[in-house]
Amino acid sequence: MNKRYIILFVLLFIAILITGLFLINKLKQSKDSSQAMSMEEYTPEEEISEEQSNTNQTVVTLYFPNKETKKVMPEAQSIDVKEMVNNPYQKLMELLIKGPSSEKLEKVIPENTLILGNKLENSCLTLNLSQELLNYDKEDENSKENLIECIVNTMTELTEVNQVKIIIEGHENEEFSNIYERSVTQL
């Protein structure tokens, strides 16, 4: 009788093992087919409306002097994410040149200043600007410092930028000869 129990136990064990392998194989096939279905390209049923496409906005922080106190203040502006993708440094400088949207803040970059190029190397951003940058208000003792602070604080809002070097027309200029770091002022 013991032989019968052993044979029965072995047959039962083999049947359970075969059933288990069959179920595992079925589950694997089911998972593979569901993954293949999810890899298919999604085609929207309707075009994205203008209102929906406006949701791809990001907020950037720019710095401008306050008209009354002359203290540099942050200003948040909302822009299309696509504008920041290719060259965020160029876009931020364009926004600085354009000026603030708030009437309480004033434009800091001199009129007609052009962005001639930019280069990020070892977390130091070099901005190549046109000579019009030198047309800042030299009679105002805070003008140059505010100009530098606005550029540097705006650019260092980007995590990859820790320092900013300003060159004029591709060359170092004695008025902007330092490598600047973000100023830590209380707002």
Notes on the structure:
The protein is of the alpha+beta class and about 190 residues long. It has two domains: about 1-40; about 50-180, no CATH class. The protein has five helices and six strands. The protein has helices at about 1-40, 50-55, 80-85, 90-100, 145-155; strands spanning about 55-65, 70-80, 115-120, 125-130, 165-170, 180. The strands form two sheets. It has a four-stranded mixed β-sheet with strand order 3-4-5-6, covered by helices on one side. A two-stranded antiparallel ribbon has the order 1-2. α4 runs antiparallel to α5 (about 145-155). The chain starts with a helix and ends in a 6-residue tail after the last strand.
Structure described in brief:
The chain is of the alpha+beta class and about 190 residues long. The chain is about 35% helix and about 20% strand. The chain has 2 domains: about 1-40; about 50-180, no CATH class.
Strand order of the largest sheet: 3-4-5-6
Strand residue percentage: 15-25%
Distance between the termini: 92 Å
Unreliable runs: 36-48
What's the pLDDT, averaged over the residues? 83
Helix content: 25-40%
Oligomeric status of the shown chains? Answer: single chain
Work out the radius of gyration.
Answer: 31 Å
> So what's the overall shape?
rod-shaped
- H/E topology pattern: HHEEHHEEHEE
Structural class: alpha+beta
Quickly count the helices. Answer: 5
Main pleated sheet: 4 strands, mixed
Find the count of extended strands (DSSP E, 2+ residues).
Answer: 6
Number of domains: 2
